[in-house]
Amino acid sequence: MNRVVAYSKLLNTAVTPDIAARALTDIASKEPKLAPITPHLITETVAGTFQLTLTDLRGRRRDEATVLARQMCMYLMRQETECSLSEIGRELGDRSPATISYAYEKMSNAINNDPHLKRQVFNIQQKLYSARNQTN
């Protein structure tokens, strides 16, 4: 209220709904800034979902569950961050950009064809967004 009154005095005009709206524009339009989703947050969330350690995700294990989790990390990092293929590869155990690109394409196709996998990715994304909101 003080802001609206001060604004109307500054303009030497009466308080009207239009003056109030203009006085409060910058306050009303500000959305809370969300913390970014980081590669580390993605690896922690995926590792927790698949009951793996970060070492497992970054390591060379090739069992089906670990490979799926690692490829999901690659996919989510590509979708949810602005990291380059090289940065994603470094985060996941020094894998090549070609490996990251292959995994991303493979996961994209699999998600489009497998409703269970699509739901799993959606659930992980929801966890990521929730974790991001809790940091504020």
Task: Give an overview in words.
With 136 residues, the chain is mainly α. It has two domains: 1-30, no CATH class; 39-134, Orthogonal Bundle (Chromosomal Replication Initiator Protein Dnaa, Chain: A). Helices cover 74% and strands 0% of the residues. The chain is built from eight helices and no strands. It has helices at 2-11, 17-28, 39-50, 54-58, 64-80, 85-91, 97-113, 115-134. Helix 1 packs across helix 2, helix 3 (39-50) runs antiparallel to helix 5 and helix 6 packs across helix 7. The protein starts with a helix and ends with a helix.
The rounded Rg comes to 23 Å
Q: What number is the mean pLDDT?
A: 89
Structural class: mainly alpha
What is the CATH C-level name of the largest domain?
A: Mainly Alpha
Strand element count: 0
Tally of structural domains? 2
Strand % is under 5%
CATH topology of the largest domain: Chromosomal Replication Initiator Protein Dnaa, Chain: A
In CATH, the architecture of the largest domain is Orthogonal Bundle
Total helical elements: 8
Taking the alpha carbons of the first and last residues, their distance comes to 27 Å
CA-based shape: elongated
The low-confidence parts are: none
Helix content: over 70%
For the biggest sheet, the summary is: none
Order of helices and strands: HHHHHHHH
In the CATH hierarchy, what is the superfamily of the largest domain?
A: DnaA protein, C-terminal DNA-binding domain
